């Protein structure tokens, strides 16, 4: 069974400050026509960036993958899949309908500049920052409580000679 997608976009507007197109309304994916992607509303199909809410209707399927949605949006807006950020998928009880958000950026550099860091890490466009474990951070915080003023930047305080 071939997956098919019909995409409807409403309240579609360009946001040049964030290098993306925003849609305050809903974007609907209807999975019935084989691999056909069509656009409704005032979306013009430019390769702009876009934040939109999507309603994905998939009557005979349990759910839809983010990668599938990302590739469909990329073909629709003539962008690469790296420029498309799909997030916040929520499937209604009983299946058949999913809501999601998407951002389609002008370029990969614009996505790296404006998209949330955790989404960039998930997409493989950024590396996760290294940090100490939770217990080590807590121990360091409690050690710093014993120091005062500029001693905190220097480290350990000197032992008193008795």
Quick take:
By secondary structure, this protein is α+β, with helices and mostly antiparallel strands. It contains five helices and six strands, in the order ββββαββαααα.
Strands, total number: 6
Number of helices: 5
Return the average pLDDT rounded to an integer. 74
- Contiguous runs where pLDDT drops below 50 for at least 5 residues: 24-50
Strand proportion: 25-35%
* Level-2 CATH architecture of the domain at 6-25 and 51-114: 2-Layer Sandwich
Might you state the CATH topology name of the domain at 6-25 and 51-114?
Answer: Alpha-Beta Plaits
CATH class of the domain at 6-25 and 51-114: Alpha Beta
Could you tell me how far the N terminus lies from the C terminus, measured between alpha carbons in angstroms? 84 Å
The helix/strand class is alpha+beta
Shape: elongated
Radius of gyration: 23 Å
**How do the helices and strands follow one another from N- to C-terminus?**
EEEEHEEHHHH
In helices, the fraction of residues equals 10-25%
How is the biggest beta sheet arranged? 6 strands, mixed
Organism: Xylaria multiplex
Pfam families: Ribosomal_S24e
GO molecular function: structural constituent of ribosome
Protein name: 40S ribosomal protein S24
Structure, explained:
- By secondary structure, the protein is α+β, with helices and mostly antiparallel strands.
- The protein has a domain of 84 residues: Alpha-Beta Plaits.
- 25% of the residues lie in helices and 26% in strands.
- The protein has five helices and six strands, in the order ββββαββαααα.
- Strands 1, 2, 3, 4, 5 and 6 form a six-stranded mixed beta sheet that branches.
- β5 and β6 form a beta hairpin.
- The chain is elongated and about 80 Å long.
- About 17% of the residues have low confidence.
